[in-house]
């Protein structure tokens, strides 16, 4: 979305045509958030789904994929009948490079450096009178519990 000169190419036009846009994972940096503000894009709710780093590494690091079909398994949460073998074809499953622990930890470090500060940025906006609500949801609960908490936060 963001050009090198800071413009939010195409984003503002797209937002203006949506009744209730939801930005998932955007903005990722304070300069992007500032650019949204300069473009007069109003943010009503900032929803932080909190999951400890080690849990994220466990979730992503356990993922295995059958490349041809795109079927996804998890060594703990949704294992194949035979370890590292696709249930339907008998072919080997792979761990994608971006699911390896080292890669995930690098992405998490970048998150803590660039994206996590956005929570405080929006909290400060709220304290300054902006109509933005910052809400945190525990992302380690069951999927149904998390869904209910998210729906509650957005209503």
Question: Can you give a write-up of this model?
Answer:
- The chain is of the alpha+beta class.
- It is 40% helix and 12% strand.
- It has helices at residues 11-16, 30-38, 53-61, 101-115, 117-127, 143-154, and strands at residues 45-50, 63-65, 72-74, 133-138.
- Residues 1-5 and 11-17 have low confidence and may be disordered.
- The strands form 2 sheets. A two-stranded parallel sheet has the order 1-4.
- The two termini are 27 Å apart.
- The chain is built from 6 helices and 4 strands, in the order ααβαββααβα.
Count of DSSP-assigned helices:
6
Mean pLDDT, rounded to whole units?
87
Distance between the termini: 27 Å
The ordered H/E elements are HHEHEEHHEH
- Widest sheet, order of strands: 1-4
Largest sheet: 2 strands, parallel
Radius of gyration: 19 Å
As a percent range, the share of helical residues equals: 40-55%
Quaternary: single chain
Number of strands: 4
Attribute tags:
single chain, 155 residues, alpha+beta, two-stranded parallel sheet, two-stranded antiparallel ribbon, 6 helices, 4 strands, elongated
What are the SSEs and their pairings?
Elements: H1 11-16, H2 30-38, E1 45-50, H3 53-61, E2 63-65, E3 72-74, H4 101-115, H5 117-127, E4 133-138, H6 143-154
Parallel strand pairs: 1-4
Antiparallel strand pairs: 2-3
The gist of it:
This protein has 6 helices and 4 strands.
């Amino acid at each position: 979305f963001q050009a090198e000169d800071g413009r939010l190419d195409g984003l503002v036009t797209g937002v203006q045509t949506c009744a209730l846009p939801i930005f998932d994972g955007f903005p990722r940096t304070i300069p992007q958030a500032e650019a949204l503000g300069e473009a007069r894009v109003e943010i009503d709710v900032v929803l932080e789904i909190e999951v400890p780093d080690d849990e994220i590494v466990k979730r992503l690091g356990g993922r295995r994929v059958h490349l041809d079909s795109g079927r996804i398994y998890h060594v703990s949460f949704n294992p194949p009948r035979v370890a590292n073998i696709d249930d339907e074809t008998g072919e080997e499953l792979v761990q994608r490079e971006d699911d390896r622990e080292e890669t995930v930890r690098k992405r998490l470090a970048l998150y803590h450096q660039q994206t996590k500060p956005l929570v405080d940025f929006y909290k400060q906006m709220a304290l300054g009178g902006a109509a933005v609500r910052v809400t945190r949801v525990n992302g380690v609960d069951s999927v149904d519990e998390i869904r209910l908490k998210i729906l509650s936060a957005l209503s």
